[in-house]
Structure formats: structure tokens, C-alpha cells
Amino acid sequence: MTAAAVDIENLSVRFGAATVVRGVSFSVRPGECVGLVGESGSGKSTILRAIMGLEPVSDGQIVIHGMPPRPDRLTRAGTVQMVFQDPYASLHPRQTIGRILEEPLRIHGIGGREDKVRAALSAVGLPISFRFRFPHQLSGGQRQRVAIARALILEPRVLLLDEPTSALDVSVQAEVLNLLKQLHAERGFSMLFVGHDLGVVAHMCNRVMVLENGILKEELSQQALHAGCAEDPYTRKLLQAARMEAAVVLHVR
Amino acid sequence: MTASTDRPLVDLRNLTITFAGHRGPVTAVHDLNLTMGRERVAIVGESGSGKSVSARALIGLLPVSAKVSASRMDFDGIDLRGMSEAGFERLRGSRIAMILQDPRQSLNPLMTAGQQIVESCRLHHREGRRAARERAMDLLEAVSIREPQRVFDLYPHEVSGGMGQRIMIAMMLAAQPDLLIADEPTSALDTSVRTDVLEEIQKLVEDRGMGLLLISHDLDLVASYTDRVVVMYAGRVMETLESRHLHAARHSYTQGLIGCRPVLGHPVDVLPTLERQEAWKS
Ligand SMILES: Nc1ncnc2c1ncn2[C@@H]1O[C@H](COP(=O)(O)OP(=O)(O)O)[C@@H](O)[C@H]1O
Ligand SMILES: Nc1ncnc2c1ncn2[C@@H]1O[C@H](COP(=O)(O)OP(=O)(O)O)[C@@H](O)[C@H]1O
Ligand SMILES: [Mg+2]
Ligand SMILES: [Mg+2]
């Protein structure tokens, strides 16, 4: 058995008296894309932040390619990176795109930065000239491309995505999802994808974990998700709502 | 409620909205035509297409920097062009209501949910305190709030998004307006709560014979909850069609919007993307 990219064993996270993640176990195999769904407040972001080493783990353990999560930037280089929902909040408003992309390289003392920034921009389909722009001069979709470029510039083995397209129009979402899929196929990193739109998650992920109130309710394969097969009543409810929505405008393609 | 005449509730002709930009004026809406009665009409389109500013023009809520012109701009036969702020305020208080994406933007943060509904009841029904309180409690129940007694005493920041929208709807039940403008009313809510809130809006509109102008970027939602859809792109109307015929949209922009969504049960390798055409902008 090859080592998992991310292995989560019986993870619990507590904030004061509230336990928001309760005994969650699952793993992401190298190169796989695993989805994490559930209503807001179910603990999805907390799990991602725990993997980044940004939340106190009160029980259980997380192993990333054989290593524990580390909050300090040095050990995280080349291992785990994260993309957030709101690309505006996550990009420094007073830094140029070039500076934003260069920053992680500089922190880790990596050379050839100019070339790497150019390559990163072109990999996400943005013109090289964008390195002189500021975040507010970009559209939401372009900003999310920059966030992806920044996450990938250190060549992580695991990419965590927290609702990366929820703030985007469906038309822009399609472009960003296509880009993510293409980069994933080319580079082979593993992904853990948090989303609330089951159509999006089914499109992106090989397997999906369903979370309710911090508890893992069910694991579904991509096929089961598309087919609407679920055992757990909560999962069935989520699926039904999603299918009802989708049934209405279907079949234009 | 007087629904006796044939005159439309909303009649907009050649509505054009221009903002002063750094490099000269920017036209956000070009020659929008929209006529609606007591029916459910949606405006859909990508962000920035002009949905919100069009609706805000109708209730006089655009910033002073906006220049609005129209060859006709009527609400129930009332000419809105050049209407005073006081006139718009009267309309908003009684005849046109608006629900926004975040209910906490529209609710008064310093008053409890109950106090706000009571105030609305007293204003519109000229009731005493006790009668208004009873009516408010009934209204909270009418929007399916399970513990009206408890919710009555909560402040806006203490309620969830879905609950906040229900409170907004309860206030509206008190005011009994003729037109409800709902601008992305469920975009900030979880999928499961979304349907409930839309059902509440639906019930309200149907029971009271109101007109509904639903603004959304979500085609699925619009298809289920409206009769007609106006599709906007870059400040222009691309096409208007019946919601139940959305799947057969003719315009390539509408087709593009529908086709680019990943849909459960219909796996594809690569999502189709929208090819935006210059011709749509003229
Ligand atoms: N720093 C924190 N302190 C206290 N509670 C928190 C903190 N972060 C998250 N929570 C709570 O943990 C729960 C799960 O939150 P989150 O992981 O953000 O959910 P999701 O991403 O699924 O919407 C929520 O109830 C949230 O209020
Ligand atoms: N206060 C304002 N000043 C300048 N431009 C504005 C203002 N409000 C809106 N706009 C512009 O008008 C256009 C339409 O905006 P809006 O109606 O909010 O779009 P949406 O379809 O997303 O609701 C956008 O291009 C926006 O930038
Ligand atoms: Mg979250
Ligand atoms: Mg808007």
C-alpha cells in the first residue's frame, strides 16, 4: 500500500466547549481529488485549516505524506497549499500580482523568481503583463486564477480548496474548474475540495465525504453521487435538494 | 388591494442608467424595457450585468451619482421619473418592498425582530400595541418560524440568514405591498434553507396576488420560481422568455449560461465555457 497523501485518523477539533469536528477519519490517496460537503457550520473549513496546521487538534491525528501538519511556512513549502473562497480577501490589496506570486518564493529562498512568476501566470491562463496590476484591477475569476497560481508556485503535493468557485458566476466557475482539472491532470497533485454545490463536487472529485455537525456521515463514489445513490438519510436529503434544482433547466447540451 | 385595472404594475421603457466613471460616463443599463403585472418575473445574468441597478432605479435607491433616463417609468400608473425622495419613501414603505441578499442589511440592528414587525403592523394597520404584538406573533408563525415567542426577542445579529429572510417576509406580510423585489434573496443561504425561503416568498406572492421581481444569477432557481425571465448581459436585455422554456432558450448567451453548469447525473470531462460575443453589446 502506498502512503496516503493525507491521512486523517479520528480527528476532533474543539473550540472551548464546542466540539465542531468529531472523530473524523478519511484519507486522500496521491493524485486523487476528494470532496468534502455539508451545510455551513458542519466543520469543512475547520478540517482544512487543521490540515494546514492552523487549528488545534484536540484528538486524533493528521499525517501528510508521512509528516505531521506544521503551521510554520518552511515545512509547509512544497507540501500543502490552500485556495480560499474569496480571492479578494486572500490577496494583499496593495501588492502587485507579481509581488504576490513572488512572495512565497522569496520566503523560501527560491531563486529564478522572475521566470517562475511568468510561468505561473501563463499556467493559469493570465497575460504576463498582469504582474504589474493590483488585485482590484482584476475580475473575480482572474483573482481566483492568481490565488491558484500562488498556491501552485511552490509545487505542493496537496492542494486544499475551500469553496473556490462559490463567489463566481457559473460561466467563470466553468473556466476555473476546467483550469483546476487540467493542472491536476498535468501535475498530479492531490486535492481536497470543499464545496456546497453537489454538481460541482461530483464533477471534480473521485470520492466525496458527507459531513453533518462535525460528524462524517457517509462516503460516496463519484458514480454514486451522479446516480443519486446514498444510504444515509441526511445525505439523501442533500442529494434530493440538489437533483430537484438541477432537474429544471437540464439538457441543453 | 386593487387589481381591477389592466394597467401594468411596472412599465419601464428605454430605461438607461449611467454612472460617472474616471474616464467619462459608464452606461450600466441600456434601453431596458420591462412590463409586468401581478406576476413573477426574474432578471438573470452574470454579475455586473445591471440587474440590481435596474431594480434600484425602480424604487429610487440609486446613488446621486447615477443618471437615470426613461421614456416611461411607471409603477401602477404613477410616473416615477423625477419623483421626490419623500415620494419614493412612501412607495417603499407601503407599496413596494425589497428583500436583499443579506437580511441583516435590511433589518434594524438596534431593534428585536418582534419590535420591527410590530412597528410594521402598527404603521400599516393603525393598531394598538397589544393587537400589533398578537399579529406579529401570528406572522412569525405564518412564515414557519417554530418558536415565535423566542425569535420575537432576538436581535438581527442573533438570527441565522434563513431566519432573517423569514423575518423580512413576515414584515412584508404586515405591510402588504403590491410588488416585491427580491435581489438574490437566497444567495447567502444553504441549499436546504433556500428552498424553504423561496417557498415562503412564493406563498406570500400567491396569497396576496402581488407582483414578484426576482433577481438572481441562479437559472435553476429562476426556472422553478418565476413565470418569465429577462436575461441581461452587459446592461442589455438579451432575451425574454417563459421560465418553463428556459431549456429551449434561443439566445446563445442564455444557452451558454445553462450549458456551463456541472450538473449532477450528467458527467462531462470538460465543462463548456461561455464564448462572449462583441455583438451582444450592441
Ligand atoms: N475559531 C473559532 N472559534 C469558535 N468557533 C469556531 C471557530 N471556527 C469555526 N467555529 C465554529 O465551528 C463550526 C464549524 O465551522 P466551519 O468549519 O467554518 O464550517 P463550514 O466550513 O462547514 O461552514 C461552526 O459552528 C463555527 O461557528
Ligand atoms: N455606485 C456605482 N457607481 C458606479 N458604477 C456602479 C455603481 N453601482 C453599480 N455600478 C455599475 O453598474 C453595473 C451593473 O451593476 P449591478 O446592477 O450591481 O450588477 P448585477 O447584475 O451584478 O446586480 C456594474 O458594471 C457596476 O460596476
Ligand atoms: Mg467554510
Ligand atoms: Mg446585484
TrEMBL record, chain A:
Catalyzed chemical reaction(s): glutathione(out) + ATP + H2O = glutathione(in) + ADP + phosphate + H(+)
Subunit structure: The complex is composed of two ATP-binding proteins (GsiA), two transmembrane proteins (GsiC and GsiD) and a solute-binding protein (GsiB).
Domain ABC transporter positions: 6-238
Bilayer disposition of the protein: Peripheral membrane protein
Source species of the chain: Seohaeicola zhoushanensis
EC number(s) stated in the UniProt entry for this protein: 7.4.2.10
Record's protein name: Glutathione import ATP-binding protein GsiA
Localization: Cell inner membrane; Membrane
Enzyme class: translocase
One annotated GO molecular function: ATP binding
Family: Belongs to the ABC transporter superfamily. Glutathione importer (TC 3.A.1.5.11) family.
Biological-process GO terms, alphabetical: transmembrane transport
Matching CDD domains: ABC_NikE_OppD_transporters
Keyword tRNA processing: no
Its job: Part of the ABC transporter complex GsiABCD involved in glutathione import. Responsible for energy coupling to the transport system.
Pfam families given in the database record: ABC_tran (PF00005)
A cellular component annotation (GO) from this entry: plasma membrane
The UniProt record lists the keyword Metal-binding: no
Keyword field: ATP-binding, Cell inner membrane, Cell membrane, Membrane, Nucleotide-binding, Translocase, Transport
Automatic annotation (TrEMBL), chain B:
Segments forming domain ABC transporter: 12-259
Pfam families noted in UniProt: ABC_tran (PF00005)
InterPro entries hit by this protein: AAA+_ATPase (IPR003593), ABC_Ni/Peptide_Import (IPR050388), ABC_transporter-like_ATP-bd (IPR003439), P-loop_NTPase (IPR027417)
GO MF annotations, alphabetized: ATP binding; ATP hydrolysis activity
Membrane is among the record's keywords: yes
Main location, first listed in the record: membrane
Record-level GO cellular component terms: plasma membrane
Membrane topology classification: Peripheral membrane protein
Compartments where found: Cell inner membrane
PROSITE patterns: ABC_TRANSPORTER_2
Keyword annotations: ATP-binding, Cell membrane, Membrane, Nucleotide-binding, Transport
Family: Belongs to the ABC transporter superfamily.
PANTHER family in UniProt: DIPEPTIDE TRANSPORT ATP-BINDING PROTEIN DPPD, OLIGOPEPTIDE TRANSPORT ATP-BINDING PROTEIN APPD
Protein name per the record: Peptide ABC transporter ATP-binding protein
